[in-house]
Design a protein that fits this description.
Largest sheet: 6 strands, mixed
CATH architecture of one domain: 3-Layer(aba) Sandwich
Radius of gyration: 17 Å
CATH class of one domain: Alpha Beta
CATH topology of one domain: Rossmann fold
Shape: globular
Strand content: 25-35%
Order of helices and strands: EEEHEEHHHEHEHEEHH
Bound molecules: adenosine-5'-diphosphate, magnesium ion
Number of strands: 9
Number of helices: 8
CATH superfamily of one domain: P-loop containing nucleotide triphosphate hydrolases
């Protein structure tokens, strides 16, 4: 279980995240959506332990994996970019196949397109088991087909490990297909919280309604 109480993050006078309370059940998949600057990355970095809060508490499991918003290529080919986590080659090959990158397996990771690199970064993260998976906009650079592959890989990993998943996204498709629960963030605060399909049809407040009116609903 994740238990967040009175969590705040400020830069100088400005509070960019203010969560009085949030509880996430073990095995739940939670998506966060909100405009640029609403605090999605800040929340995930606080949960990852990379960022220190300005106050409050976070209770979370011990084994946490974090996929940053910017995908990163390490030196070497795609297989090497996965096995550097300690995973074996068989696992790397299986993930590359799953994310339809097998044909590029022996290419330098630095030569990949943005969408390919994002899928490779996901392969790297999913090559290790964890209790809490944090994904920052995991489909942002993907086309529709790439996004489907990412969604399927996240679902399979979650079924296999039973982990809790927290992800930020601008994609209603990801929210509906990969999350059990959707939260809208505005200025670092939770403005709506519910089942993805229900929130999309009945956002519950004016701000959430105008936010999703700007979403291209594809699902
Ligand atoms: N190191 C920093 N110093 C000052 N402000 C920051 C810093 N990091 C993030 N912010 C601000 O915090 C707010 C939330 O950022 P972020 O969590 O990255 O938003 P999102 O991921 O939802 O786009 C933004 O207004 C951003 O400018
Ligand atoms: Mg962000």
């Amino acid at each position: 279980m994740i238990e967040i109480r009175d969590l705040k993050k400020s830069y100088g006078e400005r509070t960019v995240l203010d969560f009085p309370e949030l509880t996430v059940r073990d095995g739940e998949a939670l998506a966060f959506a909100g405009p640029n600057g609403s605090g999605k990355t800040t929340l995930l970095r606080l949960l990852s332990g990379l960022l220190k809060s300005s106050g409050g508490t976070i209770k979370k499991p011990g084994r946490v994996l974090y996929l940053p918003q910017q995908a990163y290529a390490f030196k070497g080919d795609l297989v090497r970019n996965i096995t550097l986590t300690g995973a074996d080659k068989e696992t790397a090959d299986r993930l590359l196949q799953k994310l339809e990158l097998s044909a590029l397996a022996n290419k330098k990771a630095a030569s990949l397109s943005g969408g390919e690199l994002q899928r490779l970064a996901l392969c790297r993260v999913l090559s290790v088991d964890c209790e809490l998976l944090l994904l920052d906009e995991p489909t942002s650079a993907c086309d529709a087909k790439g996004a489907e592959l990412v969604i399927e890989a996240i679902r399979e990993y979650k079924n296999k490990t039973g982990c809790t998943v927290l992800m930020s996204t601008h994609s209603p498709v990801l929210a509906v297909k990969a999350a059990d629960r959707l939260i809208f963030l505005n200025n670092g605060r939770i403005t709506a919280d519910g089942k993805p399909k229900e929130l999309l049809t009945n956002p519950g407040n004016e701000w959430a309604a105008s936010f999703i009116a700007g979403w291209k609903i594809e699902c």
